[in-house]
Amino acid sequence: MSTPSSPSPSCITSWSISEDSLRRFVSHASESCIQELLSASDSSREIGDDGWKVLAFENGVEISKRRSGPLHAVRSRWLLQSVSPQQFITVANAIDAAKQWDSDLVEAKYIKDLGENLSIVHLKFGDASKPLFKKREFVVYERRETMDDGTLVVAVASLPKEITAGLLPKKSNSIRGLLLQSGWVVEKLQDDSCIVTYVVQLDPAGWLPRFFVNRHNTKLVMIIENLKKLVQGCPTSEAICEDN
Fold first, then answer.
1. DSSP code of 190?
2. Coarse DSSP helix, strand, coil percentages of the chain, rounded to the nearest 5 percent
3. Pairing mode, if any, of strands 175-176 and 182-188?
4. Spatial separation of the C-alpha atoms in residues 187 and 194, rounded to whole Å
5. Is residue 186 within 8 Å of 85, Cβ to Cβ?
6. How many other CB atoms are there within 10 angstroms of residue 12's CB atom?
7. Bigger pLDDT: 44 or 131?
8. Is-above-0.90 flag for pTM?
9. Are strands 182-188 and 152-158 parallel, antiparallel or unpaired?
10. Beta-carbon neighbour count of residue 14 at 10 Å?
11. What span, in angstroms and rounded, lies between the C-alpha atoms of 150 and 146?
């Protein structure tokens, strides 16, 4: 069975929304995403009790999946030694992740700032991208929060298509996919290390078989090594975090 095709641009209702209303909507939606991410990162639960099924454990990375509707949510968890949460959080964002998903990322930019920790991001992939991303684009929010215990959370998910149609009309030759509740939870340990949980649930839209989408969603959470290299190759990452 395939994922349903995207409606044509003429079939999508465009909502005109004020910046204040958009900020309130995204703040409410992202709060739900943050709670889902914190729940997914809760290591106190017994394996399997929370609906997550472990698929593999290799090179220190645990890969799990959970059915959520027709498509799976996929989670990776790993321990990063000698990397602080403040260092890792510099590359825990929608744009750096998308660059690791597929190198043919032709556009990645912040199109609107709604607050100090709340932004709207546009991601666009080209003709040479992998099938999961070929001619796809995503309009997502990105929210960063520091919890009372110091845990850092980055929540990323698509805005409703009615809102994105008003913010950034879709080009006729592209397919607008959906990134469902996704993001990072970075927990500080006693030493200068951290535990990172990364959750992805992506619906590329268009006519792609569900088994194909679910299989490739699993690969999306395996970007940790590349992100770790980005952190270790940036000696100014601590200073960047302090500035933010």
1. S
2. 30, 35, 35
3. unpaired
4. 5
5. yes
6. 18
7. 131
8. no
9. antiparallel
10. 14
11. 6
**Residue 235 DSSP code:** T
Go through the chain and tell me how many residues it has.
244
pLDDT at residue number 157: 94
pLDDT of residue 16: 67
Measured from the Cβ of residue 78, the count of other Cβ atoms closer than 10 Å reads 19
CA-to-CA separations, 86 to 6, 90, 121, 157, 190, in angstroms, rounded: 39, 7, 22, 22, 14
- Nearest C-alpha neighbor of 35 from the set 185, 159, 178, 138: 185
Q: How confident is the model at residue 26 (pLDDT cuts 50, 70, 90)?
A: very high
Which residues, in sequence order, are CB contacts of 128 under 8 Å at separation 6+? Answer: 104, 134
Question: pLDDT tens digit string along 151-189?
Answer: 999 999 999 888 888 888 887 788 999 998 899 999 988
Query: 40, exposed or middle or buried, with CB in 10 Å at 0-12, 13-18, 19+?
Result: buried
Q: How far apart are CA 93 and CA 111, in angstroms?
A: 14
* Residue written as token pair 């991001």: 121
Q: Angle 94-101/224-232 helices, nearest 10 degrees?
A: 120
| One-letter amino acid for residue 70 of the chain | P
Find tokens 């220190």 and name the residue.
60
Q: Would you call 140 helix, strand, or coil by DSSP?
A: strand
Residue with tokens 């909502």: 15
Q: Which residues does 34 contact at the CB level (< 8 Å), separation at least 6?
A: 143, 145, 153, 155, 183
Q: What is the pLDDT of residues 203-244, one digit of tens each?
A: 888 766 676 777 767 777 777 667 767 776 655 434 333 333
C-alpha span between 140 and 159 (Å, rounded):
6
The helix (run of H) or strand (run of E) holding residue 77 is strand 71-80
